[in-house]
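Thread: MTE complex, take 2
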Amino acid sequence: MPQDEDDEITASEITPKEVYLNRREFMAASAAAAAAAAFPELSGAESHGNTPLKIEKRSDYAEKEPPTTYKDAAGYNNFYEFSTGKEDVAALSKDLRVRPWTVSLEGLIKKPKVYDIDSLIKMFPLEERIYRMRCVEGWSMVIPWVGFALDGLIKLSEPDSKAKFVEFTTLHDPAQMPGQRREVLQWPYVEGLRLDEALHPLTILSMGMYGETLPNQNGAPLRLVVPWKYGFKSIKSIVKIRLTEQMPITSWMQAGPSEYGFYANVNPEVDHPRWSQARERRVGEFMKRKTLMFNGYAGQVASLYSGMDLRKNF
Ligand code: MTE
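Output below.
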């Protein structure tokens, strides 16, 4: 029987009562978590031990779907600077020093500047954006990020007319980041966007999630979030943003050029050479679901790629 034909009556008839009751409790808990994540200031959302952030702007970008639990979002992470084991990252990153921290804006801009993280965070009103996130490995989450659109910061730096790309770089500090003592990737981690992608209103810099500052394992103190691309584009713990004329060589392109392209747009029709990208598993759910073109954001971003062969520009 297809999953979505399952309803409460059938479930109570065919499922042992204890399991069924647990499922109902689970669903009630998920709904409460979703409401708390979406409106932390209204519902008195539970604290997760990070500093609460003041959300100043209601967002137009909120998924209707319930967010992934905080436990999963902060406990199942890709952050190779610490470990390739997703469940090890939280413990290994807990002592990362995220203050003082600076982010350098440089390259083909008229106003290069080194920003202190706290002054940077105060420059733009904070907004909550509930985004679907799809990892290239086939799992996905729904995360209530806190941040602001990247375009404001880029425009403030006054890009030269030659600037075509934006390159982002993560902190390089093997003393604090044990994964950087091994050559799993070329360090520091580098990612990149075309300038028009970086200026797209969906692209944000995030310093928080679930109403609080980012836990280290999710990329504190500042990370990129690009919801229509595979998760690896959303680079963590950024120290440098550089505008360039040439397309940046990203860490993943360098590691496996036939597997990881520069664009990395979520595309169920273009398989990874070693696995299909047609379906995904939401962390916390059992059944897989269909992956959507551009991760469901086609209406907003498809025009950025009109006329491009998305099989070649994967
Ligand atoms: N950024 C850095 N610096 N190092 C990484 O290993 N992993 C990427 C991305 N950003 C990664 C990174 C990958 S593969 C994914 S799926 C997301 O971070 C995971 O983000 P999350 O842990 O907040 O879910």
